[in-house]
Amino acid sequence: MAVLKQKKIKVSRTSLDTLAAMFGCTVTKVYNALAFRSNSESAEQIRQEALQNYGGKEVTEIKVL
User: Fold this and answer.
1) How far apart are CA 39 and CA 37, in angstroms?
2) What is 1-65 written as a DSSP string?
3) Residue 65 has what pLDDT?
4) How many Cβ atoms sit within 10 Å of the Cβ of residue 58?
5) Which residues, in sequence order, are CB contacts of 29 under 8 Å at separation 6+?
6) pLDDT in tens, 7-27
7) What is the pLDDT of residue 1?
8) How many domains does one find in the chain?
9) pTM of the full predicted structure?
10) What digits encode the pLDDT tens for the residues 23-50?
11) In a 10 Å sphere around its CB, with 0-12 CB exposed, 13-18 middle and 19+ buried, how is residue 5 labelled?
C-alpha cells in the first residue's frame, strides 16, 4: 500500500475564469498551475495571485494506492 500526498490550491470556478482572463491563458493552464502539474514562471505567478487575491486555499490531498 502506498500513500500519495498531493498539494493543490482550491479556488472558485469564477476565480478560475478570472485568473485565465488575467493571465491571457486557458482555464486548463490555470487548473494545472493550481494543481502543481506545471512549474513554470507563469504557473508560480498564477498560484501566488490565487492565494493572495482570490481566496485560494492550499490543501494537501492524501490518496491511498
Assistant:
1) 7
2) --EEEEEEEE--HHHHHHHHHHHTS-HHHHHHHHTTS--SHHHHHHHHHHHHHS--EEEEEEEE-
3) 86
4) 13
5) 20, 23, 38, 42, 43, 46
6) 999 999 999 999 999 999 999
7) 79
8) 1
9) 0.88
10) 999 999 999 999 999 999 999 999 999 9
11) exposed
Residue with cell 498539494: 7
- The range of the structural domain enclosing residue 56 comes to 3-64
**Neighbour tally for 59: CB within 10 Å:** 10
Name the grid cell of 53.
487575491
Taking the CA atoms of residue 29, residue 47, residue 24 and residue 28 in that order, the dihedral angle to the nearest 10 degrees is 20
Q: Which amino acid is at 45?
A: Q
Cell numbers describing residue 9 = 490550491
CB 12 within 8 A of CB 35: no
